[in-house]
Design a protein that fits this description.
Blueprint: E1 8-9, E2 19-23, E3 29-33, E4 52-54, E5 60-72, E6 75-88, E7 96-101, E8 109-112, E9 118-121, E10 129-133, E11 142-152, E12 157-168, E13 171-179, E14 183-187, E15 190-194, E16 199-209, E17 215-223, H1 231-236, E18 243-249, E19 254-262, E20 268-269, E21 288-295, E22 307-316, E23 321-325, E24 331-336, E25 345-349, E26 354-361, E27 366-373
Parallel strand pairs: 20-22
Antiparallel strand pairs: 1-6, 2-3, 3-4, 4-5, 5-6, 6-7, 7-8, 8-9, 9-10, 10-11, 11-12, 12-13, 13-16, 14-15, 16-17, 17-18, 18-19, 19-21, 21-22, 22-23, 23-24, 24-25, 25-26, 26-27
């Protein structure tokens, strides 16, 4: 896709399927219409872009488009770009329309909301500058400006932000984001570097006059593929999103910490489910085993003392929760029915031995819960 919507095309598309419907179990449906043509086009012309979404609860979202020619790699390509989006809540007040215009002012792209307020975006494929105005941008009544810097990996800017700065009435705050060390690769244009995408630290700065103020908070994260005896395996099996440690500081002192462990073999149990149940694709599953939260009466101080509170999670081999055990060793158990191939919990029994029965009715897509005390 290019720009705000629509697919690339070379000429017109004579599409015969102009609507699709997805029916839900409660007798409602999503409806999608594809009747995209310009004023004056014959009925045989259809660019195939989505023009209307009808919601199951009533109401709709509608789109209009225009064709824009852009040049990419010396090729002149046409594509459909959104010119309006209308949201009708079916509340009797009619639709509310956002309009989209391109290359105004001075090559910027502008979105005008239903109240006539403009948001002006930089003309690049990613937003480096976004300005929010009260009323039209021509009135120059700027509410705030957001400037974003993106990671450069050798190909130029990417969609990975490393700095987000907001200016509000002369006051400026900032968020910086640091990523993992990543990997290098080679192509016809030379060697390049790319992170795996794991956010290592996020630093938030207070508002300052003309420039960001002092650090308010910094969150530092370590992941399973970076630490522990199975780190290399998590990396090779592309399990990259599991944090093992999340530490929040005020820039100097620790204010909070939560640690996690995964794939403790003693906490993996057989579900006895065979329906469409295949072996795990790798040696590790990414199952949460324990969560340790550190608490202190004097956080954010250099001499703070910490107490660890650890809870545990036992998992079935279907990746469904079997038991959760809180720091007091109180256990909540989850039961599953073969009717749903072990995919949906039908009973939940808490530490007080109160059992909740979940009646999952496929025909109406509803859930009923009933609780009663389980005998000892």
């Amino acid at each position: 896709m290019d720009g705000a919507g629509g697919a690339d095309f070379g000429g017109t598309w004579n599409q015969t399927v102009t609507q699709s419907v997805v029916f839900l179990g409660n007798n409602t449906a999503w409806s999608f219409e594809y009747n995209d043509r310009d004023a004056g086009d014959p009925a045989s012309v259809n660019y195939g872009s989505i023009t209307k979404i009808r919601l199951p609860v009533g109401g709709s979202i509608s789109y209009t488009y225009t064709t824009r020619q852009i040049t990419i790699n010396n090729l002149d390509r046409g594509s459909r770009w959104v010119t309006s989006r209308t949201v009708d809540a079916n509340d009797g007040n009619g639709g509310r329309t956002w309009t989209y215009s391109y290359n105004t002012p001075t090559n910027f792209n502008t979105v005008t909301d239903p109240l006539g307020n403009d948001t002006v975006h930089s003309p690049t494929m990613i937003d480096t500058v976004v300005k929010h105005y009260q009323g039209s941008y021509s009135s120059n009544n700027l509410l705030n400006e957001v400037d974003t810097t993106y990671l450069n990996t050798g190909y130029g800017a990417t969609v990975i932000p490393v700095s987000i700065q907001t200016t509000l009435g002369g006051k400026v705050n900032k968020r910086t984001i640091a990523y993992d060390a990543g990997f290098t690769y080679f192509d016809s244009r030379g060697n390049h570097w790319m992170p795996y995408g794991s956010v290592m630290s996020v630093t938030d700065y207070d508002y300052g006059s003309g420039s960001p103020g002092s650090v308010l908070r910094q969150t530092n994260t370590t992941y399973s593929w970076q630490s522990g005896s199975h780190a290399a395996t998590y990396l090779s099996e592309n399990i990259l999103r599991l944090p093992v440690s999340v530490i929040v500081t005020d820039g100097t002192n620790t204010c909070a910490e939560t640690d996690y462990t995964y794939d403790d073999s003693a906490r993996l149990f057989s579900s006895n489910i065979t329906t469409q149940h295949q072996a795990a694709p790798g040696t590790l599953r990414g199952n949460l085993s324990s969560t340790t939260r550190k608490v202190s009466a004097t956080p954010c101080q250099a001499n703070a003392t910490w107490t660890s509170l650890t809870s545990y999670t036992n998992m079935y081999d279907t990746h469904e929760i079997y038991q959760t055990i809180d720091p007091r060793s109180d256990t909540t158990r989850y039961g599953y029915s073969s009717t749903y191939a072990g995919a949906l919990a039908t009973t939940v029994t808490n530490a007080l031995r109160v059992q909740l029965l979940r009646d999952l009715q496929q025909s109406s897509a509803t859930e009923r819960t009933q609780g009663f005390l389980v005998g000892r």
